[in-house]
Amino acid sequence: MATLQKVGAASRAARATPVEYVEDASEPEPEPKPVDRKTKLRSFRVRTVSTVALIATFIGIIWSGHVPLMFFILMMQFLVARELFRIAYVAERSKRSLPLLRTQQWYFFFTAVFWLYLRFIKNNLLVEVTSDKTLARLFYWALKHHSLISYSLYMAGFVGFVLSLKKGLYLHQFAHYAWTHMIILITTVPTSFFVSNIFSGLIWYVLPAFLIVANDICAYLAGFFFGRTPLIKLSPKKTWEGFIGGFLGTLVIAFFLAALMSRFKWMTCPRKDLTVFKGLDCDPDEVFVPETYALSDLTQDLVSRLPDTMISYLSLMFEALPAGLRHWLADLTFTVAPIQLHALSLASFASIIAPFGGFFASGFKRAFHMKDFGDTIPGHGGVTDRFDCQILMAVFAYCYYYSYISKPEVTLGDVLSMATKLNDHDQILLVGKLANLLAGEGLIPGSIVDGLRNHLGERFTWEVPDS
């Protein structure tokens, strides 16, 4: 009778959780069952419809602007964390409920979001709050002490966790503490780098993110129609034909998609504030302006970085070509925007390295005997199933942009951020000096400077130009 009660309790627990978990992970994994063509076609239709709907939604959010796109990323991070927290709960489930488990998980998640997002949009936020004295009074202190506030919030959660420890549950509670921090570190932290890319110009988020989608589509189509050779055991459905087809297709899409996106200022101009639906206007960066390149110049620059042995082999191969072809290649020129060449680098990463994020997720699912992380997206599984490769791409796109694209410049947000680090005396002095400069240029009347001097008294000595 007791055995039947235990079985019934286990059955009810399994029905209550959407993730299937097998306690004995040492059991041999079942071989994947062959799928008939009718089932494959049905799956193809469902996947295609949901993919079109996802892309249409994504385009709509891009059109709405930088801030809605930032909240879209936050929503994706929330859904990914929810799916993984659910797996952690199943994996480390104890016979008794753990005190404040879900509260602690989401508390640490939103503390991490607060710290990360404000680090990336602090300058934009300063531009907004300083436009009104009431907003400045409310938010200036919080922005100035953002790091300290973030650390204090984390320590409050840490102390709360320690106080919630219960005898007999220590192992499960510390396991969940580790799960929570690893989930945030592996998923939430990397994808937050996309927020920085968004405000540097939508193209620096949209292009890398869409290349992941393009590679997934191209690899799926190539594998569906031509796939024969298995690629990796972690993902039995992945084939070499799909992997290579995805790589080639992504390169082509990246080259032309970058040229298309670079035509629109909405995609290329950086957003220096947090306004929504406000148009953007800027001088196009040189990376978006087409240039004429000579193939000989590019090859010489590339060859100069290779080892001497490889250079000699390449020289022999070039000399072996027909004379007419050698002359044609030496005189060949082409005109492209530099962003198109950078897009090929992004596409290469999206096709060769980023899929390993998917393989990692596949291995994780196999470890817990799961097919998908969830069922949020028909034909695709959970949000994590579609977001796994984006995690790697987010950090690479950020590093690539600041290594090869970004140029040192001073923005209004940068100046305001630096000004907040001055003491009270120097901040007021900065206002006076700046007012003198503006009055000297005729941008503001000298009476404004007189008013500042009269209001502040004799604490500061300013030379006020004639009005």
From TrEMBL:
Biological pathway: Phospholipid metabolism; CDP-diacylglycerol biosynthesis; CDP-diacylglycerol from sn-glycerol 3-phosphate: step 3/3; Lipid metabolism
Cofactor(s) for this UniProt protein: Mg(2+)
Pfam families attached to this UniProt entry: CTP_transf_1 (PF01148)
Coiled-coil residue spans: none
Annotated GO biological process: CDP-diacylglycerol biosynthetic process
Location of the region described as Disordered in the Swiss-Prot/TrEMBL record: 1-36
Keywords: Lipid biosynthesis, Lipid metabolism, Membrane, Nucleotidyltransferase, Phospholipid biosynthesis, Phospholipid metabolism, Transferase, Transmembrane, Transmembrane helix
Single GO molecular function: phosphatidate cytidylyltransferase activity
Enzyme class, broadest EC rank: transferase
GO CC term (a single one): endoplasmic reticulum membrane
Catalysed reactions listed for this entry: a 1,2-diacyl-sn-glycero-3-phosphate + CTP + H(+) = a CDP-1,2-diacyl-sn-glycerol + diphosphate
Membrane topology note: Multi-pass membrane protein
Chain segments annotated as transmembrane: 44-63, 106-127, 147-165, 177-196, 202-227, 239-261, 339-361
E.C. designation(s): 2.7.7.41
Cofactor: binding details: Requires a divalent cation for activity.
Keyword Amino-acid biosynthesis: no
Keyword presence, Ribonucleoprotein: no
Subcellular location per the Swiss-Prot or TrEMBL entry: Membrane
Secretion signal span: none
Sequence similarity: Belongs to the CDS family.
Function: May be involved in the synthesis of minor phospholipids and in modulation of IP3-mediated signal transduction.
Protein name per UniProt: Phosphatidate cytidylyltransferase
Classification lineage: Eukaryota, Viridiplantae, Chlorophyta, core chlorophytes, Chlorophyceae
